[in-house]
């Protein structure tokens, strides 16, 4: 059976990814901006963070001025099951057309190799297998699915696979997708699949620019779904039986819509994260901003909040050369302190 979904709309396009080992995350975010002229920003730095110890420690391993679009930009981040390997999917405007690019790093995001520049607009999905990554084109962009087993260096078309899911499972050919309240999963690359409707208690659907999402858990059959709701709250719900039954594991207080909450499951069963990337902290000498992110680490399927770790990202670097590694990093102490320049205070 062919799943009639637009691949480009369902494939992974996240700014956060779990690492290859438990307690490890990667995240892309804007971290610093400065307006020297008063007429607009001439510097907007985007960064790739490598988070370890369940978000307690953070290091900016790569950063680039977003206005320099010819350079590799930390946009969509993906990881497979190889320790130290991280992918970036970014886009570049050439001759009036948007071109996709896939980059790979083998040293936790410090150095990068350009691996793929497809001739049509594409999306990528990683698998929980070392070196395995899929590429797909949406309607009007070539269609079909392609597979690489060498970290994106070469792709071959998978003839019996016309579509990809948004999230991979724990094995090759396991995929999940969530479209509105429709939950799809397959264990054979969509040759056969199951379609379920999730109760509106757990998934609302598209709401004010926010879409539901789906994540695999730490054991086979475990699935998380997330959704915003009209009362401005954000929920994460969990299923141990591949989507047949869900229960709520996280429910936020009402939030302004400009607040950005993100979810990511860990590779360890029962652990997940809520990331609050609520944006800019303004400065006036010089005029600009820097960014604060906070990571909540939960265990026991949401029963225990282990800690909340906040990182304020500021500009301390020696060079604007994106090909080098900037001296940009933030760390936090074990007692949930926030880094504020050289000043610490309790969160």
Relevant terms:
1 helix, 4-stranded antiparallel β-sheet, 9-stranded antiparallel β-sheet, 347 residues, mainly beta, 27 strands, Neuraminidase
Protein described:
It contains 1 helix and 27 strands. It has one helix at 7-10; strands at residues 16-18, 25-34, 43-52, 57-65, 76-78, 86-94, 97-105, 113-116, 122-126, 133-137, 145-148, 156-157, 167-168, 175-179, 182-186, 194-197, 213-216, 223-228, 234-239, 247-251, 261-265, 272-276, 280-284, 287-299, 304-313, 337-340, 343-346. The strands form 6 sheets. Strands 1, 2, 3, 4, 21, 22, 23, 24 and 25 form a 9-stranded antiparallel beta sheet that branches. It has one domain: Neuraminidase (6 Propeller).
């Amino acid at each position: 059976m062919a799943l009639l979904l637009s691949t480009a709309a369902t494939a992974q396009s996240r700014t956060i990814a779990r690492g290859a080992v438990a307690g490890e995350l990667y995240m892309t975010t804007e971290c610093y901006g400065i307006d020297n002229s008063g007429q607009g920003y001439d510097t907007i730095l985007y960064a790739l963070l490598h988070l370890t110890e369940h978000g307690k420690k953070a290091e900016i391993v790569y950063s680039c001025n977003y206005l320099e679009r010819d350079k590799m930009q930390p946009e969509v981040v993906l990881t497979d099951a190889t320790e130290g390997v991280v992918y970036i999917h970014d886009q570049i405007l050439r001759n009036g057309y948007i071109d996709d690019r896939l980059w790979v790093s083998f040293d936790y995001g410090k150095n990068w190799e350009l691996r793929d520049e497809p001739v049509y607009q594409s999306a990528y999905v990683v698998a929980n297998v070392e070196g395995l990554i899929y590429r797909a084109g949406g309607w009007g962009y070539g269609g079909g699915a392609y597979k690489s087993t060498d970290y994106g260096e070469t792709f071959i078309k998978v003839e019996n696979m016309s579509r990809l899911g948004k999230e991979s499972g724990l094995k090759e050919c396991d995929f999940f997708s969530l479209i509105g309240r429709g939950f799809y999963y397959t264990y054979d690359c969509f040759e056969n699949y199951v379609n379920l409707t999730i109760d509106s208690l757990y998934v609302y659907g598209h709401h004010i620019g926010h879409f539901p999402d789906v994540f695999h858990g730490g054991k086979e059959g475990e699935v998380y779904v997330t959704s915003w709701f009209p009362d401005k709250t954000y929920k994460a719900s969990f299923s141990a039986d591949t989507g047949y039954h869900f229960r709520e594991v996280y429910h936020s207080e009402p939030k302004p819509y400009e607040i950005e909450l993100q979810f990511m499951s860990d590779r360890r069963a029962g652990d997940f994260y809520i990331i609050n990337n609520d944006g800019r902290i303004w400065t006036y000498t010089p005029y600009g901003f820097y960014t604060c992110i906070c990571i909540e680490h939960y265990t026991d399927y949401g029963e225990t909040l282990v800690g909340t770790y906040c990182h304020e990202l500021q500009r301390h670097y020696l060079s604007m050369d994106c090909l080098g590694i900037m001296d940009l990093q933030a760390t936090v102490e074990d007692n949930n302190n926030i880094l504020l320049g050289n000043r610490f205070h309790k969160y």
